[in-house]
Structures are given as structure tokens and as C-alpha cells.
Amino acid sequence: MAFDAWMAEDFGDSRFDLGRAVYEYMVRYYYRSAHFSRVMVSKDAQQDILSFLLAYAPKNCSDSEQWFQERIARLSVADAIVARDYHRYLGEQSKRIAELAKEENYLIAGLFVSRRDGCGSPLMRCLLEQAKDEAYESLYLWADANCNCEYYRRHGFEQVARFDQTPFLEAQKLDILVFKKTL
């Protein structure tokens, strides 16, 4: 679903292998806990994924690094460079959240994608209720300025940091916003 949402915008139609590698890595990177991650599927026979939210506690680990190294070895040199840029970019945002978080017991919403309006909110509400029940103090997430950041503000998240002109790919730079919801 992440591939479908961003592939054309990020890579066009000509870099299919790169797009698959980047978005599968992104999902593997953020899928660190089935306990906190959520998915909403359609009720029809197709069972299409409508929305998903991958969340985790910082202590949760993933097998994404080994997978990433093995996968980029199969890419062209030019595509491997771009994939490494994505790898660096995701790691930098995770480090930023770790530096900003003052609480000891917090969660991170790492990847949140929705195909239809209204499908993501129930997933977020469910995660927030569970986190509160399990005595987590807050939920952090980051988004680039191109995302629907108003969604987070409307749902009670406070912007705690903004990093202007963060290096992304080649000459591209993105403004990064970090949000926090106190539970």
C-alpha cells in the first residue's frame, strides 16, 4: 500500500525495483511490533487494505537492516544510492524522535497510510486507547511538510519540533515536523 501511495510521485513508472525495495524496507523498518500495529481491511470479498498504522516502542527491534543490505545488492548502482538515501533519511528521523522524547515510556507511530478518508482515525484511536491502558506516557510521530499534518493537529497532537530543509534525495530537501500526543 505504501508503494501504491507514493511510488509514482517518488520514482515514476521506470524504477519499479527501486520503489519496491524502498517501500518494503520502510514497512519492515517500522513493523517492529504486531502488538501496537493496526490494519483496516474492506469488508467485501477483496479484503483490500484500506489503512494501516505501524507503531512500536523504541525497545522493539526489526530485521530490516539485514534485509535491506541483501536487497540493495540486487539493485543497480544508481538505484542502490537512492535506496541508501532513504535508509539514512528514516534513521535520522528516528534519532530525532529519540533525542526529543523526555519520557521513558513512549511509543512511535512510524508509518500511517490510508486510502480512504476516515479509515485511519479508528486505527489511531485504538492505538491511543491501548497505549494509555498500558501506561505509556506519549505517542510520537514525524511527517514531512507535504503530509496532511493538520490531521495530527485535529487529533490532539502537538508539534514539538520542525527541522527545515532536511536533506532527502540528491538535491531535494524536506521540512520535517515531529508531533507528540500526551496520553
Number of strands: 6
How do the helices and strands follow one another from N- to C-terminus? Answer: HHEEHHEHEHEE
Strand content: 25-35%
Kindly report how far apart the N and C termini lie. Answer: 29 Å
User: What does the radius of gyration come to?
Assistant: 16 Å
Structure characterization notes:
With 183 residues, the chain is of the alpha+beta class. Helix content is 43%, strand content 26%. The protein contains six helices and six strands; from the N terminus they run ααββααβαβαββ. Strands 1-2-3-4-6-5 form a six-stranded mixed beta sheet, with helices on both faces. A hairpin with a 7-residue loop joins strand 1 (38-41) and strand 2 (49-56). Helix 1 packs across helix 2 (16-30), helix 2 (16-30) runs antiparallel to helix 3 and helix 2 (16-30) packs parallel to helix 4 (77-100). The two termini are 29 Å apart.
Provide a compact summary of the structure.
With 183 residues, the protein is an alpha+beta fold. It contains six helices and six strands; from the N terminus they run ααββααβαβαββ. It has a six-stranded mixed sheet, with helices on both faces.
Topology (SSEs and partners):
Layout: H1 2-11, H2 16-30, E1 38-41, E2 49-56, H3 64-72, H4 77-100, E3 106-114, H5 120-133, E4 138-144, H6 149-154, E5 158-167, E6 173-182
